[in-house]
Amino acid sequence: MSSNQTVAPATILIVDDTPENITTLGDLLQPYYTLRVAINGARALASANSDQRPDLILLDVMMPEMDGYTVISRLRENPHTAEIPVIFVTALDATDDETHGLELGAADYITKPLRPAIVLARVRSQLELKLARDRMRDQNLWLEAEVARRMKQNQLIQDASMRALASLAETRDNETGNHILRTQGYVEVLCRELARMHHPEVLDTHCIELITKAAPLHDIGKVGIPDQILLKPGKLTEEEWAIMRTHSALGAEAIRRAIQDEADQSVFDFLHVAMKIAHYHHEKWDGSGYPEGLAGENIPLPARLMALADVFDALINRRCYKKAMPLEQAVTVIQDGKGKHFDPMIVDAFSNCLEQFISIALRYADTEFESAY
């Protein structure tokens, strides 16, 4: 704050039903603070709950209809007034009375007859404490906003870097980055429908976010496959197919090596999911897939989701070794694979969400799919 700026004086609400007490406190505090007055509890609550909240309340205990103890209890129950510091001003002298007031949330206790030096010191002390709390609260809010901003920025950078890496593998495979966007969209749709159908306790919002975020890395291992195999227009030989099949293990191993030396593995949750997807998305429900021949629920759920998404997209789009398949035929292939290639529940989710699949396919379409559809 620049030196020519002035700080408005603190506002103090005096609550007392005796005019003489109000006058005494007013004469004492008026030179230093902005004062407001309430002559009973109801008016005190209304004034405290106004848009111009006081910085401090001097509250008499012994008042008719609503005593100070009731007033402070009401203040503390209201989130709008709960943090306003209250100093009780009372003729009561008993320790039990003071203890009760402090238990209800009073910041301090001043007994009558009032001693000016004591009143000014107690008021100043409570206002300084409130100012310090307000500054700390504002600083914490700023820090929270700054942390959220930086986390969002880091998330965007992380997502962009991940997609760039995934696109590298797709580009080598003579595919466009749209394959990544399509399969990621399919996986998210399947996750949400499967959660609705069967697994809301397993596929919660965080889990769906992790799986969806990890999906683009499913074929990252293709960067390790030679071009003469990866881009071969015809059918692969048995030897070539054996090499092609290694891309799943290569992808998982590449991700594992990237994070193995980090002490805090929790920050790489989505990469652990990505390892499962990369490694197992060519496994089949009946155990006839690769690389390990896993079957049924032994195949990690993220990989089962990706298996269907990846096959569906491969069917309806051109590859270097085949033409795009008409949509209706591709849907039949997926549904015929229920309980064989694919998890039956995931096929059911696919059938329920076919319109969403078509929408995603069209949104990120290659020309071949548009003509096929």
The tally of domains stands at: 2
Secondary-structure element sequence?
A: EHEHEHEHEHHHHHHHHHHHH
Supply the helix-strand structural class.
alpha/beta
Note the beta-strand portion.
Answer: 5-15%
**What's the helical proportion of residues?**
55-70%
Provide the low-confidence segments as ranges: 1-5
Alpha-carbon distance between the two ends: 65 Å
CATH level 4 superfamily of the largest domain: Hypothetical protein af1432
Q: Which fold name is given in CATH as the topology of the largest domain? A: Hypothetical protein af1432
Number of beta-strand segments: 5
Describe this structure in words.
The protein has 373 residues and is α/β, with parallel strands linked by helices. The chain folds into 2 domains: 132 residues, Rossmann fold, CATH 3.40.50; 200 residues, Hypothetical protein af1432, CATH 1.10.3210. The chain contains 16 helices and 5 strands. Helix 6 crosses helix 14 and helix 12 runs antiparallel to helix 13. The two termini are 65 Å apart.
Compact overview of the structure:
The protein has 373 residues and is of the alpha/beta class.
